[in-house]
């Protein structure tokens, strides 16, 4: 995939390394000359040292050939401009942007930005997930020692992969509480489909825990709470 990485961010080099290791073609646009030169030499990628955000820079970066543009500026307005030019002028298929103020996320999505990277929002969702697990575990510890709260991760060998919840025929003493996917929490319905990488939080009785484990993962059970 052809990726253009815009902006100055402490994680810029880390993003470049990840994308390079995955085999993507990367072009870096950054106003820091020393950083551009360092990353360009180290990872053997083209780098454009430029502080302005304009169509000329996009043309130099061959934006018309890009599959993905990622904008990492500390200013949300700059990230929005990068993604807007990418979409509207150069018809880039996908745009990802760092959103430093979570209140701006809805605006970004409404303007067609494909993915928003917001550290505060991710942390909030992680805390919410932990709170759900803690509350359930506290309840069962108080009521019964025969139930457990467990997290399973869906793998390629999982029986549940690409199946809907209603298709699994789970035992009565097992309940799927939540699904953690792409930094979002899903409250499952019967029509919820499990996909590779999903983290599934369940409450399950001791009598059927091995049976449930085989449905959700081919590996040893990983406990969130003991």
From TrEMBL:
The residues that cross the membrane are none
Question: At the top level of its lineage, which domain of life is listed?
Answer: Bacteria
- List the Pfam families: TrkA_C (PF02080), TrkA_N (PF02254)
Query: Which protein are we looking at?
Result: Trk system potassium uptake protein TrkA
InterPro entries cross-referenced by the UniProt entry: NAD(P)-bd_dom_sf, RCK_C, RCK_C_sf, RCK_N, Trk_Ktr_HKT_K-transport
**Could you give a single Gene Ontology term from the biological process aspect?**
potassium ion transport
Q: Does the keyword Ion transport apply?
A: yes
The keyword Ion transport appears for this protein:
yes
Domain named RCK N-terminal is located at: 1-119
Q: Molecular function (GO) terms listed?
A: monoatomic cation transmembrane transporter activity
Q: What is the lineage of its organism?
A: Bacteria, Bacillati, Bacillota, Clostridia, Eubacteriales
Q: Where is the RCK C-terminal domain?
A: 137-218
Keywords, comma-separated and alphabetical: Ion transport, Transport
Coiled-coil blocks = none
Q: Enumerate the Gene3D superfamilies for this protein.
A: NAD(P)-binding Rossmann-like Domain, Regulator of K+ conductance, C-terminal domain
